[in-house]
Write a structure and sequence with these properties.
InterPro entries: PEP_COase_arc-type (IPR007566), Pyrv/PenolPyrv_kinase-like_dom (IPR015813). The chain is of the alpha/beta class. It has helices spanning about 20-35, 55-60, 65-70, 90-110, 130-145, 160-165, 180-185, 185-195, 210-215, 215-240, 260-270, 280-285, 285-300, 310-340, 370-380, 395-400, 405-415, 425-430, 440-460, 465-475, and strands at about 1-5, 40-45, 75-80, 120-125, 170-175, 200-205, 240-245, 275, 360, 365. Helix 2 runs parallel beside helix 4 (about 90-110), helix 5 packs parallel to helix 8 (about 185-195) and helix 15 crosses helix 20.
Length: about 475
């Protein structure tokens, strides 16, 4: 299980500031290992000041814990690196990060007095081709490690003889697939990637949040289901274990992974090996509930993926996504307007474009998915509901056979809908009245606060908007 991006409302107890910086993230890594029982921390090297000394700092600050729990054997640090193919401004951070891996190896070797690599895997976001993966795999093997065999000009010593060996000899590259085309093409890319390598296993990461924002909730779920089915078939074909990772947040739109819903999510994606737990899961719930949920995740046995009629599902997805995008277009203005009031939870360097702070859907510039989700909840239109009127009753019956938590996830979102909201598309309002859900005091208060936010926006007054957004996040137990 890995931990990753921020969607929390509460400030972690160990942080002085709601916006976590690099030193806070060192503490966080220790906390999720030692107190929550997680076994993997994704270390994000994208879009912020990178701390290449994470292993050294963990070992020096928390020596007694890491004497018992060996990094690279009992607990794992997995680096998420920039993708130079699409993130040109961050490209050289990749080189710095890969160069830090042998240094972390040396640090751990001195500490543990053995040669277990503390870092041996990296996650590559926005993977679109086998070239993206191969460039990192071979750069590390041929240039980071390979240079140790080179000799200096007019001298007879190699670089390894001069400053020591470079280990580990190779790293595993984990592709993160984030868009429609490449999620569906993941098995083809993986097949080509392993064709010239002797790998003992593969890990593959499927995004769940950005596909939801780009194509709607139903399409996001179905894309992952198809990809998991294809990954399983590829594993059988190659005779290599493939261990899928899925990125899930606490909002139903982003996976509905909360301590109270762990068993539901596992049933939804039974073939997934690793579920990310995000900040709301960790910090917006009782710590004991979090620990128990983590134990359930770690003790479960992986199952088979659900069978999916791919042709029929893809046809439904296309129709639904068209409607979703039409409704999204009408709301884009207010989403961007309210986004500036949604508080940030990680210190990141500002960089713009499709893969930076903003996202682009059908030519619309939109905020990152956590802010996007928080913005829509804050005006009383949870993003889960958009586009649903594209389906007939027969369509919905079919969808429920594949998306098994559909009714529960939708019910969790519907209680926050303001049905009197003039921004709610009329055809969607009529369609949703057939669904059953239970409102409670918290959700009724949430609807009232969302009306306050819309009223403030109409008056062009900023007073109280951010506090209202945070209050609604507390009621939901997630920000976005």
């Amino acid at each position: 299980m890995s931990t990753q991006h921020p969607d929390n409302v509460n400030t972690p107890f160990f942080a002085e500031n709601p916006e976590l910086g690099g030193e806070d993230e060192i503490t966080e890594a220790y906390y999720v290992f030692s107190h929550l029982g997680c076994d993997e921390q994704m270390w994000d090297c994208e879009g912020k000041e990178v701390d290449d000394y994470v292993v050294k700092k963990l070992l020096s600050r928390y020596e007694s814990f890491f004497r018992e729990k060996v990094i690279g054997k009992d607990v794992f640090i997995t680096l998420r690196v920039p993708n130079p193919t699409v993130e040109k401004d961050e490209a050289k951070i990749l080189i710095e990060t890969l160069e830090s891996i042998p240094r972390s190896f040396d640090t751990a070797k001195i500490f543990y007095e053995h040669e277990i690599p503390p870092i041996f895997e990296v996650i590559l976001p926005m993977t679109t081709s086998v070239k993206c993966l191969n460039r990192i795999y071979w750069y590390y093997r041929d240039f980071v490690v390979g240079k140790q065999h080179m000799k200096f000009r007019n001298e007879d010593v190699t670089i390894a003889e001069w400053i020591g060996e470079f280990k580990p000899g190779f790293i595993n590259v984990i592709p993160l697939f984030e868009d429609w085309e490449h999620i569906l093409n993941a098995d083809t890319i993986l097949r080509e990637y392993v064709s010239d390598k002797n790998v003992p296993y593969l890990r593959v990461f499927f995004a769940r949040s950005d596909p939801a924002m780009n194509y709607g909730l139903i399409s996001a779920v179905m894309l992952v289901k198809i990809a998991l089915q294809r990954a399983y078939k590829l594993s059988e074909e190659l005779g290599i274990e493939i261990y899928p990772i899925i990125g899930v947040g606490s909002a139903p739109f982003r996976g509905n992974m909360k301590p109270s819903t762990v068993e539901r999510v596992v049933k939804e994606y039974p073939s997934v090996q690793t579920f990310t737990i995000q900040s709301a899961f960790k910090y917006d719930n009782n710590p004991e509930d979090v620990r128990e949920a983590v134990k359930k995740l770690l003790s479960r046995n992986r199952g088979l993926p659900h069978e999916v009629n791919e042709e029929k599902v893809i046809e439904l997805m296309k129709r639904y996504t068209r409607t979703y995008k039409e409704q999204l277009r009408s709301l884009a203005g207010i989403i961007n307007e309210i986004a500036k009031y949604v508080p940030k939870r990680r210190k990141r360097k500002l960089h713009t474009g499709l893969f930076g702070y903003s996202r682009e859907v059908e030519g619309l510039k939109l905020p990152r998915v956590i802010t996007f989700t928080a913005a829509l909840y804050s005006i009383g239109i949870p993003p889960e509901i958009l586009g649903l009127n594209a389906f007939s009753k027969d369509d919905l019956r079919f969808i429920k056979t594949i998306y098994i938590n559909f009714e529960d996830d939708l019910a969790d979102a519907l209680k926050y809908v303001d049905f009197e909201n003039e921004l709610l598309p009329e055809e969607l309002r009529s369609f949703l009245k057939d669904f059953e859900f239970t409102s409670d005091d918290a959700s009724q208060e949430h609807v009232k606060i969302s009306r306050f936010v819309r009223e403030r926006l109409e008056r062009k007054s900023e007073v109280g908007i951010q506090d209202a957004i945070l209050r609604m996040g507390h009621l939901r137990r997630f920000l976005g």
